[in-house]
Design a protein that fits this description.
single chain; 257 residues; alpha/beta; Spore Coat Polysaccharide Biosynthesis Protein SpsA, Chain A; 7-stranded mixed β-sheet; 6 helices; 37% helix
């Protein structure tokens, strides 16, 4: 496993996007401090005041968006801040469904691979108690990530991940809300970056206690728009134009022989 005390490209930082998770975020941060890594909490325009107490917590960097910009925007803010001193960003959600200690499993999954994206595959996704929206969203997302030129995955919607920095910052990911996470996977496929899945546990709070900002209709439309854009880019720009350009180059090279 890579050591956070090594070179800049080997160092890890934790990025936690937050939007009105005041009841759970402090517990998540306290658990994440056990990793002995710098933590960047990005308050994405919360109105519940739940992040205020974190400002003076040692080892925690609190970054604030004045208004809600979306999960993807919050992740990017955290990535840019973390990239000054780290080569990897470990992301986890603020709602308490992840055990930060599982980050060690994700880190160990990097191995000798060439700087992959690591996705925590939630083992309990199909078990009783898992929200139907999560199960449906995962299957929908898995299929279209693959269709858009991304990797074949089991859990493309998991927010518990490791991203290689600064590679991800150079991929020009356009989505700024939840769709950021699936677009990154597609862009990884386009850039030939491996995506590795590692098993993690997940904790679903009882009905009425879980904080979720997922809106089935709105997010379905946003997902559809993003996948449509990516599929068009993949088919018409990357494949068809790529073949025309490289085909002409091969033809010219043969003509010169």
């Amino acid at each position: 496993m890579m050591s956070p005390a090594g070179s800049e490209k080997e160092r890890f930082a934790v990025v936690i996007p937050v939007y009105n998770h005041g009841r759970t975020v402090r517990r998540v941060v306290q658990a994440a401090l056990g990793l002995n890594l710098p933590i960047y909490v990005v308050d994405d325009g919360s109105t519940d005041g739940g992040c205020a107490s974190l400002e003076s917590t040692p080892g925690v960097h609190l970054l604030v968006h004045p208004s809600n910009l979306g999960k993807g925007a919050a992740l990017l803010t955290g990535f840019r801040a973390a990239a000054d001193s780290a080569g990897w960003a470990i992301t986890l959600d603020a709602d308490g469904q992840h055990d930060p200690e599982d980050a060690r499993v994700l880190m160990a999954s990097i191995g000798d691979r060439a700087r992959p994206v690591v996705v925590g595959c939630r083992k309990a996704m199909l078990a009783a108690g898992a929200p139907w929206t999560s199960r449906f969203g995962r299957g929908f997302s898995n299929f279209w990530v693959r269709m858009a030129g991304g990797p074949l995955l089991i859990d493309s919607q998991s927010g518990f991940r490791i991203y290689p920095l600064p590679e991800v910052l150079g991929w020009e990911v356009r989505a700024r809300r939840y769709q950021f996470e699936v677009e990154v996977l597609v862009k990884a496929g386009w850039h030939g970056v491996p995506v590795v899945e590692a098993p993690i546990d997940v904790i679903y709070a009882p009905d009425g206690e879980r904080v979720s900002h997922f809106r089935p209709f709105v997010d379905f439309v946003r997902n559809s728009n993003v996948f449509t854009r990516l599929i068009v880019q993949n088919i018409f720009i990357r494949q068809i134009l790529g073949r025309l350009i490289f085909g002409r180059r091969r033809y010219r090279n043969r003509s010169d022989e």
